[in-house]
Amino acid sequence: MDGDKLSQNKIHIDGMDFIEIESCRFIMGTIDGDELATALEKRRNIWISKSFYVQTTPVTTGQYFKFINETGYDHDYYIEKWDGEDWVIGPHFMEINSRGENYPIVGVSYYDAHKYIEWASKKHGKTFRLPTEAEFELAARSGCKCIGNCKYAMLVNQEGLSRKEEEKPRSAPREVKKGIVTEIGLYDMHGLVWQWCEDWFFHYDSEELVDPKGPEKEPHYAPWKGERWAPGKVIRGGSFNYPYYHSRCSNRHYSKPSDRNINVGFRLFI
To answer: Which ranges of the chain would DSSP assign to H, the alpha helix?
Structure first.
């Protein structure tokens, strides 16, 4: 990765901070020597041809509730949680998201995230969006040149920010800015909540690519654990309720667009 292309240009919009990442080339996928990598993390050369801005934190409850208060958007529902064996009905949306304004919003589907983006874009005169999977990974790496282990995932583990394999599922995420911050000042790209991306989840194209966006149409299936599962959208970043190795910059996961669960939120890109 051309580390010199990761700039420090910042903008501030109504309580939200954004950092610019300039156009650059980088190797997407597993790092050399990473024994935790899967076949779904195949390395490929990527050129991000245009600069973009990344929100410095996931969208918070305080930010999302401005949207609810102004639009009356539906929030009277229960969200899913993992009980150690399966996904089950969990807390009400209001219960999990009413602990303070500086927590990441969770229990929002891909469609809910887009409704928020539509509202925020109109309100602030900006073209907010979800990231492509490649953009999220570039931002998560933030110039690092890791070999063998992802340093950010190792920090998640060392600081006890994610659930241990033998630990019971945790009940809720912590506040934003209480975990990992990247070298350029992005908070909670690793180990807080999974974050929606725009791409459909599928095998990577192997050739060198410019601004990849995943499959153009919904694929017939999602490749998962050697099987064919129901298709879904990419989620990135790991979670407080998953083991630390899911927080690696190259780690890939997905969820059905309609899913609303305790592990998933999102952040804005411009």
So the answer is: 61-71, 93-96, 110-124, 133-141, 151-158
Cβ proximity of 104 and 96 under 8 Å: no
Q: Are the beta carbons of 201 and 234 closer than 8 angstroms?
A: yes
DSSP 10: E
Give me 187's structure tokens: 């908070």
Alpha-carbon gap, residue 234 to 232, rounded angstroms: 7
Short-list 266, 262, 258, 270, CA closest to 74? 258
DSSP code of 105? P
| Res 206 pLDDT > 90 | no
The Cα–Cα gap between 71 and 118 comes to 11
Three-state helix/strand/coil letters over 196-251: EEEEECCCCCCCCEECCCCCCCCCCCEEECCEEECCCEEEECCCCCCCHHHHCCCC
Helices 61-71 + 110-124 axis angle, to 10: 80
Q: How far apart are CA 67 and CA 214, in angstroms?
A: 29
Least confident of 6-20, 107-121, 180-194, 229-243: 6-20
Tokens at 201, concatenated: 């989840």
- Choose among 268, 269, 259: nearest CA to 108: 259
Longest Cα separation, the chain:
50
DSSP-assigned letter for residue 141:
H
As a whole number of angstroms, the distance between CA 196 and CA 12 comes to 22
Q: How far apart are CA 268 and CA 19, in angstroms?
A: 11
pLDDT, residue 51, reads 96
